[in-house]
Amino acid sequence: MAIRLSLICLLVSVTAIAADLTPERYWISALPNTPIPNSLRHLFTSDFSDEKSTNVQVGKGGVNVYTGKGKHGGGTAVNVGKGGVHVDTGKGKGTHVSVSGGKGHGGGVGVHTGKPGKRTDVGVGKGGVIVHTRHKGKPVYVGVKPGHNPFVYNYAASETQLHDDPKAALFFLEKDMVPGKAMNLRFNAEDGYDGKTAFLPRGEAETVPFGSEKFSEILNTFSVKPGSGEAEMMKKTIEECEAKRVGGEEKYCATSLESMVDFSVSKLGKDHVRAVSTEVAEKNAPMQKYRIAAAGVKKLSDDKSVVCHKQKYPFAVFYCHKAMMTSVYAVPLEGENGLRAKAVAVCHKNTSAWNPNHLAFKVLKVKPGTVPVCHFLPETHVVWFSY
């Protein structure tokens, strides 16, 4: 009886608490003066989003949570009232309900239906109620060649990467960043899926296994066949996240927007920080020749920065690293077909700790530590800096 009454009291604040826990609201609360780059805003929802809605009702009878297209649309209903807790999942399978009030359990109610990326989670605890409705399923894997991320600098370029990886063209020398300079570029980074992979809310991302020691569990969680191209791609991402640091850099793989914000703020502070990314006027623009516009290049930062690179994974994961001795530039570009791009470039002044066979050195035909090495950011990547 005591547990039931405490649950009802906690549930009264559901709408305010649940709203505060959205990734966007978390950003605004942590960085009220820092606009969210479009590259990140577009990852709040998946291309495979479900049109079903989540309704939370608080009334005298308790709290009712419905997810589904209609009252009898086969969704999930969670009712907490005088009669206790009742869960109806319609035609779905695999619902787990836990009610605890003893020591060591935290107290509260947790309801999980389905696997991450295809489920509704309702949690009731000391902090209130959290309701997450995930999309119908993870994006469809369409296949990419598993290869090292060229923005992880302790790896050597593969034999074919120099010619086959479109990101090879993103590297250039700082001295070439002048108006009129022409470069063949493509900014939309392929992540192996038919449609963008979205952020999971931190509360859900933290329940999803991540790490090489849990790889079998990860494949099972996302229904990925061992040995498949998708499995190899995911394995590569995890290996890069666990790889040793380059020189004195600090790195972190963010599995949610909230954790990316926390890492970046911990390295740069929160009072005067910006986050920017490349913006191209046309979606999925092909490789083409761009020229640096006459308007010229603008230096945004000339000290430390945190660069976050989107990884190839079933949900949004970013490889973030704090780099010292870097410059960040805004570079206006004009394509040969008239397409305009607001590109962001990062220049590394000290590359002495990079793998001597890294892709950048192969492309530019220079040696580590000799000249600043720059690269444009693909559209889904972001750089943070103080100003």
TrEMBL record:
Ranges for domain BURP: 171-387
Comp. bias (Gly residues): 101-111
Stretches assigned to coiled coil: none
Signal sequence range: 1-18
Keyword Ribosomal protein recorded: no
Record keyword Signal present: yes
UniProt-annotated stretches for the region Disordered: 98-124
Alphabetized UniProt keyword annotations: Signal
UniProt xrefs under Pfam families: BURP
PANTHER family: BURP DOMAIN PROTEIN USPL1-LIKE, BURP DOMAIN-CONTAINING PROTEIN
Name assigned to this protein: BURP domain-containing protein
Organism per entry: Brassica carinata (Ethiopian mustard)
